[in-house]
Amino acid sequence: MNFRRGRHREEPEINFIPMIDLLLVILIFLMVTTTYSKFAELKINLPSAQAETSQPAAAEITVAVAASGEMEVAGHKLAAADKSALQAQLRDAAAGKKDPVVIINADAKATHQSVVSVMEAARAVGLTQLTFATQNTAP
């Protein structure tokens, strides 16, 4: 027996407005609670090609990185993976200097990790001004 003969069945309807409200609140929550990481913890000053302007000579700390990974900080040779000695040498070289600039002389075949280790050690010591030394190739 069909008791609902004359009635038409209504299709179910989904109300999207409460769902949109909920998604908007979640979006606002995520935007407020997200921490934005800074990729520029180390401020790297790239050399400019303008020869007209000259800057006053700043205190410089030269770090040489060989292809084998060995390093030399201001004339003192260090082992390839000795991060604590590298930090100590950078700290000693920066003692008494105001805003020293760390110049990284890396061999063309030096590993990327050894250069990044120098940058991390400089950041750990508090040296924020870095530059890379390059050589010009003859045309």
TrEMBL record:
One of its GO terms (molecular function) is transmembrane transporter activity. The keyword Transport applies. Coiled coil: none annotated. InterPro entries: ExbD. Pfam families: ExbD. Keywords: Cell membrane, Membrane, Protein transport, Transmembrane, Transmembrane helix, Transport. It is found in: Cell membrane. The chain crosses the membrane at residues 16-36. It comes from the Bacteria. GO terms for cellular component: plasma membrane. GO terms for biological process: protein transport. It is a single-pass membrane protein; Single-pass type II membrane protein. PANTHER family: BIOPOLYMER TRANSPORT PROTEIN EXBD-RELATED, EXBD MEMBRANE COMPONENT OF PMF-DRIVEN MACROMOLECULE IMPORT SYSTEM. Belongs to the ExbD/TolR family. This is Biopolymer transport protein ExbD. The lineage of its organism: Bacteria, Pseudomonadati, Pseudomonadota, Betaproteobacteria, Neisseriales.
